[in-house]
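Late entry, evening session. Most of the bench is empty. Finally got around to the prediction I had been postponing all week. Sequence below, unchanged from the version circulated by S.P.
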Amino acid sequence: MSAWLFDLGNTRLKCAPLVDGRAGTVHALPNTPGGLADALDAVLPARIDVAYVASVAGDALRVELLDALVQRCRRIELARTQAVFGGLRIAYATPARLGVDRFLAMLGARGGIDDAVLVCGVGTALTLDLMDAGGRHLGGRIAPSPQLMREALHARAAQLPVDGGAWVDWAVDTDDALASGCMGAALALVRDARDSACARLGSAPTLVLHGGGAAPLRERLADASWRPSLVLDGLARWAME
């Protein structure tokens, strides 16, 4: 059976074949409105049996993806956040309010780590979710990603550039000051969350980073585990249950 995994975010579509219960080679495609079908044509076979889809994008993009997949798939299954699944127990009283990307990222982390885990995803938003060693979700945090911070500042003050600059402890130009400040704010949040997790659990959880915007944080969190396709890994586990 030919099966593919699809993770539709706010800026990118990531997809991979499902191979032996795991995500195969990952393709990252721009989710430009009106261009998803052409982007898929470049990576997908002409026909597949089943598509497993996780989406946190807006309705228009999600419908565009589903329309494109209907043309080549026999069956489409949409992932949903579930209260209990695969050893993971969600803390939210209303599971549907927890983004499916966060649910799947935790599920993916559960597939390779037996200890407590702090999952940090960096895309449009920066999300943090804590699980104990038994798979119990203890809650999370959401904040703007460093890139979104830059965009928000630029929107309110156009003279502040939306990109550029590099990390400097004490910047002597605006570009570096913005890059360092926004990255520093994200790092402070991650480190504070990890300190809080240590106090809650009595020991440090494994920090797992994923997402298209996580690479700069990774450089300054040397002990973090890097799982760039964590949502697809979780989607593969969801598909196989």
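Two things to note before I forget:
Helices lie at 36-41, 59-70, 100-110, 146-156, 174-201, 215-220, 230-240.
The chain has a mean pLDDT of 95.
Will write this up properly tomorrow.
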